[in-house]
Design goal:
- This protein is α/β, with parallel strands linked by helices.
- It has three domains: 1-156, Distorted Sandwich (Spo0b-associated Gtp-binding Protein, Chain: A), CATH 2.70.210; 162-332, Rossmann fold (3-Layer(aba) Sandwich), CATH 3.40.50; 362-428, GMP Synthetase, Chain A, domain 3 (2-Layer Sandwich), CATH 3.30.300.350.
- Helices cover 21% and strands 23% of the residues.
- The protein has ten helices and 19 strands.
- The protein has helices at residues 172-179, 228-235, 256-270, 272-275, 289-295, 298-303, 320-332, 376-384, 390-403, 405-411, and strands at residues 6-12, 45-50, 64-66, 86-91, 94-98, 104-108, 115-118, 149-156, 162-165, 197-202, 208-213, 240-246, 279-284, 309-311, 350-351, 362-367, 370-374, 419-422, 425-428.
- The strands form four sheets. It has a six-stranded mixed beta sheet with strand order 10-11-9-12-13-14, with helices on both faces. A five-stranded mixed beta sheet has the order 3-1-8-5-6, with no helix packed on it. Strands 4-2-7-15 form a four-stranded mixed beta sheet, with no helix packed on it.
- The longest helix is centred in the middle third of the chain and has 15 residues, at 256-270.
Length: 431
């Protein structure tokens, strides 16, 4: 089965239930007061990391994931039930991205840690909430708020301590097989490794770590050429980079320094922070005569003199203990930092909060006494306050007045008798 590491879908939290308009109708109780209950809150969409999952195949089967709506309020002050949350389990290492804005919504790097991504809408208030000394029998109620929704691009990135990178056929798969029980495909042609391969290995000091054999890079990968971003997204997770170099120069150019520079340049162009990760340069295929000749080239030795270098042969399994010891030591002194800033989150159930948007009011003069009002701020009021009762109409007008809409309309020259359209409502302006 093909390794599925990306998926596109939509998530939608539940809508809040509407509040109820109701009055007591009991025997011997004259003029019973309001007793309409509140609507229930809509369900959240929650993601949880699952160590038992290894691909995003499940997420590709559906295009929409929706939590349950809250139930509407009822008579006798009965509140509607909250909508059931939708829990989506994904592999650990999944990143959720807002497809429209490119913003990272969540980095799911811990197992069994619930993350609320889309919040359910709040339930509307019933008319019992609006009773006061001036209005003892209100017919005011609120509609439930819409839940949040996002178009999601999910990307699965390998969670490994060490990533083997290099040109195709540098010997990465052979090396992984030599140091672990992993059995990657090995052949004498480019791009043998099309999907990440993981292996667990142990150094002489007893420390263990996860190593990833990642698909080979070519020049232009940062622009999407070859396996391009399919490779680069996986190395983002690795704490240490092991740059495996075919020191014989048999693949790519004969110039091993140039082969090294090709890979480094792709990392820098993809993300400069990624290129700053701790690096170990592995001179591989040292059992070949061409590699031994390059080892005597003073230009090559001068270029690599300030780098952490280990000479090995993955095929002959020579000097692997020295490589593993150097990796273990480097990991102990390395602090991992992601490619995007960590968000400050509460303990327990984590909630990804987004900054409040500025008030948005759009006023359009259509001519001939016709006006149209729109904008997210207006829509929230329109959706929250249905004009089903006279009291709600008065409340709707009061909310618009407090928002400053009336002053803006006067400043733009609205006249008595003009018609103001607010989404589905058409209201006559009387000043």
């Amino acid at each position: 089965m093909k390794f599925i590491d990306t998926a596109n879908f939509q998530i939608r939290a539940g809508k809040g239930g509407n509040g109820a308009v109701s009055f007591r109708h009991e025997l011997y109780v004259a003029n019973g007061g309001p007793n309409g209950g509140d609507g229930g809150d809509g369900g959240d969409v929650i993601f949880v990391g699952d160590e038992g999952k290894h691909s995003l195949l499940d997420l590709k089967l559906n295009k929409l994931y929706q939590a349950r709506d809250g139930e509407k309020g009822d008579i006798k002050n009965m509140h509607g039930a909250n909508g059931e949350d939708l829990v989506i389990r994904v592999p650990v290492g999944t990143v959720l991205i807002d497809h429209k804005t490119g913003r990272v919504l969540a980095d799911i790097n811990q197992p069994n840690q619930p993350l609320i991504i889309a919040h359910g809408g709040k339930g509307g208030k019933g008319n019992a909430r609006f009773a006061n000394s001036r209005n003892k029998a209100p017919t005011i109620f609120e509609a439930g708020m819409m839940g949040e929704s996002f178009e999601i691009r999910a990307e699965l990135k390998v969670l490994a301590d060490v990533g083997f990178i290099g040109l195709p056929n540098a010997g990465k798969s052979t090396l992984l097989r030599a140091i672990s029980n992993s059995k990657p495909e090995i052949a004498d042609y480019p791009f043998t490794t099309l999907n990440p391969q993981l292996g667990v290995t142990r150094a002489l000091d007893g420390s263990t770590f996860v190593v990833a054999d990642l698909p080979g890079l070519i020049q232009g990968a940062s622009l999407g050429k070859g396996l391009g971003h399919e490779f680069l997204r996986h190395i983002e997770r690795c704490k240490v980079i092991c740059h495996v170099l075919d020191f014989s120069g048999n693949y790519g150019s004969e110039d091993v320094v140039n082969n090294y520079k090709i890979i480094r340049q792709e990392l820098i162009q993809y993300n400069s922070q990624l290129a700053a990760r701790p690096e170990i340069v592995v001179f591989n295929k040292m059992d070949l005569d061409e590699a031994q000749l390059n080892l005597m080239d003073e230009t090559i030795l001068e270029f690599f003199k300030d780098k952490k270098v280990v000479e090995i042969s993955g095929m002959k399994k020579t000097n692997l203990d020295q490589l593993l010891s150097l990796i273990a030591m480097t990991l102990k002194t390395t602090t991992f930092s992601g490619l995007w800033p960590d968000q400050n989150l509460n303990q327990g159930l984590k909630v990804y909060k987004f900054s409040e948007e500025e008030s948005e009011i759009i006023i359009q003069n259509k001519g001939n006494g016709q006006w149209e009002i729109s904008g997210k701020t207006i829509y929230n009021i329109y959706q929250r306050t249905p004009l089903a009762t006279r009291d709600n109409l008065l409340l709707f007008n009061e909310k618009l007045k407090k928002l400053g809409l009336y002053d803006q309309l006067r400043a733009k020259g609205i006249q008595s008798g003009d018609v103001v359209k607010i989404f589905d409502y058409e209201l006559e302006w009387i000043d």
